[in-house]
């Protein structure tokens, strides 16, 4: 895996500045990972943190802007869900505004999900958190 290429994919999406070394760590520590290529170029990716029984967490799903709306994101999520089957719960959090995409897979909004982010204020401003 070219971790610099994956880092560039997140920047292009745009899903933030994710350092190559950090991506190597998080993807290596994930139970499931999916990488999609077109003509040798990385076009999409995603991963699942999972314990094998109780909880699977789908995260870091990313698709090149030129490939968004083509079904590639759906294929990546379908594959990650397939690998995650058998867990008692499958969780994800999405970029604000992308929730309708994930509802198509059967995901529903959680009423009790809470988070602590490295930069709480920034995530409040981006719509990931609510202080209510």
Automatic annotation (TrEMBL):
Coiled coil start-end: none
InterPro entries found in the cross-reference section: Acyl_CoA_acyltransferase, GNAT_dom, NSI-like
GO molecular function, one term: N-acetyltransferase activity
Keywords: Acyltransferase, Transferase
Segments crossing the lipid bilayer: none
Keyword match Transferase: yes
Pfam families registered for this protein in UniProt: Acetyltransf_1 (PF00583)
GO cellular component, one term: cytoplasm
Span of domain N-acetyltransferase: 1-132
Annotated protein name in UniProt: GNAT family N-acetyltransferase
